């Protein structure tokens, strides 16, 4: 029997249920993967609550990414073999012991990662890549302001931004989160509750401001970011965990600034070539030891609600993984 977390009614993590199902027979072109770990992303929580832009038909299993071993390859499925260690890319369905997918949803696991790291890599670092490289076009020597630097995508942006040669200013809500951000390359650290970050950014940059703002928080954080940017700045809207902010057009005009929405998954669906370049680069950097997700919590599948609460309560530092035993 296969265990899976099932959403039968929209709501809080506690409304989900862990259920059992028999394995189904593969159709031509399908592959069976024994899931060893699944990564949690904030959209998983939003999707289960009915608050995400993608609204799967009920019932469904949350989870956008996982890692495991190929256990069966169906007829007409090519490019994959039994025993392959793989990352599984999904829009939902990853919180389970076993997944039936197509070869196109599989990517070889970096040899430098364990299953939990592999299951928490592509979504977060893929978003950071699309934001900083495709949309923000960060250049060496520029100042990158990363909000929510203790979170999954924020910490990925710190790591990638430093690798790209930017001077990285990281903001977060605790010393513990900032310590991890510093270990991943942040040059300057700001705690939200100790100094208004817009004042701190001006102080750090001698009044010049940030060239690129990576913002998964939104709300007042986004609005205050417009008051500490340099000429020609790019404000990258990753999400709105802190609410929806308003763009002051006068501030954008004065600074010649741009506000850019970041949807890494949708960008690839619109232009698959973007995804091929991104994936090749991310896998290469992982193999070279330049990028690695920080997995602060590894919980068993049955603790899915607790794991989701870690994201809601902002207790995670980097990523959270469900680990199948």
TrEMBL record:
<dbReference type="InterPro" id="IPR013154">
    <property type="entry name" value="ADH-like_N"/>
</dbReference>
<feature type="domain" description="Enoyl reductase (ER)">
    <location>
        <begin position="11"/>
        <end position="322"/>
    </location>
</feature>
<protein>
    <submittedName>
        <fullName>Quinone oxidoreductase</fullName>
    </submittedName>
</protein>
<dbReference type="InterPro" id="IPR020843">
    <property type="entry name" value="ER"/>
</dbReference>
<dbReference type="InterPro" id="IPR013149">
    <property type="entry name" value="ADH-like_C"/>
</dbReference>
<dbReference type="InterPro" id="IPR051397">
    <property type="entry name" value="Zn-ADH-like_protein"/>
</dbReference>
<dbReference type="InterPro" id="IPR036291">
    <property type="entry name" value="NAD(P)-bd_dom_sf"/>
</dbReference>
<dbReference type="Pfam" id="PF08240">
    <property type="entry name" value="ADH_N"/>
</dbReference>
<dbReference type="InterPro" id="IPR011032">
    <property type="entry name" value="GroES-like_sf"/>
</dbReference>
<dbReference type="Pfam" id="PF00107">
    <property type="entry name" value="ADH_zinc_N"/>
</dbReference>
<dbReference type="GO" id="GO:0016491">
    <property type="term" value="F:oxidoreductase activity"/>
</dbReference>
């Amino acid at each position: 029997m296969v265990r899976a977390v099932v959403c039968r009614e929209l709501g809080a993590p506690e409304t989900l249920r862990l259920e059992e199902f028999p394995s189904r027979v593969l159709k031509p072109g399908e592959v069976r993967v024994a899931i060893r770990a699944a990564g949690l992303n904030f959209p998983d929580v939003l999707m289960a609550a009915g608050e995400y832009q993608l609204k799967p038909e009920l019932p469904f299993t949350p989870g956008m990414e996982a890692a495991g071993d190929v256990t069966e390859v169906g007829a007409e499925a090519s490019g994959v073999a039994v025993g392959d260690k793989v990352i599984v890319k999904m829009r939902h369905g990853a919180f389970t012991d076993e997944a039936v997918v197509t070869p196109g949803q599989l990517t070889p696991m970096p040899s430098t990662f364990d299953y939990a790291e592999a299951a928490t890599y592509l979504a977060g670092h893929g978003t950071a890549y699309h934001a900083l490289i495709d949309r923000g076009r960060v250049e060496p020597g520029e100042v990158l302001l990363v909000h929510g630097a203790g979170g999954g995508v924020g910490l990925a942006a710190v790591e990638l931004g430093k690798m790209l040669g930017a001077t990285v200013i990281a903001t977060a809500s605790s010393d513990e989160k900032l310590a991890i951000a510093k270990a991943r390359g942040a040059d300057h650290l700001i705690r939200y509750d100790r100094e208004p970050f817009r004042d701190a950014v001006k102080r750090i940059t001698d009044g010049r401001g940030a060239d690129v703002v990576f913002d998964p928080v939104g709300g007042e954080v986004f609005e205050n970011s417009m008051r500490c940017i340099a000429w020609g700045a790019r404000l990258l809207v990753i999400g709105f965990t802190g609410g929806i902010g308003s763009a002051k057009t006068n501030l954008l005009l004065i600074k010649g600034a741009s506000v850019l929405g970041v949807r890494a998954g949708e960008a690839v669906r619109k232009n698959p070539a973007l995804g091929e370049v991104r994936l090749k680069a991310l896998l290469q950097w992982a193999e070279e030891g330049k990028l690695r997700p920080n997995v602060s919590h590894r919980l068993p599948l049955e603790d899915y609600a607790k794991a989701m609460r870690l994201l809601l309560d902002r207790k995670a530092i980097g990523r959270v993984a469900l680990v199948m035993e």
